[in-house]
Amino acid sequence: MKRQPQRTCMGCNEKKDKNQLIRIVKNSNSEIELDRNGKKEGRGAYICDDEKCLEKIIKSKRLERIFEMKISEEIYESLRGVILDK
User: Fold this and answer.
1) Which of 29, 35, 47, 62 makes an SS bond possible with 40, Cβ 3.0 to 4.6 Å?
2) Which residue in 22, 14, 1, 10 sits closest to 60, CA to CA?
3) What is the pLDDT of residues 49-79, one digit of tens each?
4) Measured between alpha carbons, how far is 64 from 36 in angstroms, rounded to an integer?
5) What whole-number distance in Å separates Cα of residue 77 and Cα of residue 82?
6) Helix runs in 43-84, H state only
C-alpha cells in the first residue's frame, strides 16, 4: 500500500495526509489562489478544512508571513467559502 505524503496545517500545526488539507499557492506572478488538485506551480501552504484553523491564520497573519506579501480580504473570503461549503 502506497503511503500518502504528510503536510502540516498552518493553523493547528498538526501533520495530516496531503489529500485532507486545502493547498493555497502563490505563483510566480505573486497571485494567491486555491489549488484543489495540489498540482499548480508555486509556493504552497496547507490548511485544514476547519474554520478554527482559518480564523487562526487570519488573526496571526501567518499566511502573509509565509508568502511575504499582503493578503487581500477576497482571498480570505474565498477560503471561508470553501471551508464553510463542506
Assistant:
1) 35
2) 10
3) 899 999 999 999 999 999 999 998 988 898 8
4) 20
5) 9
6) 51-60, 62-67, 73-84
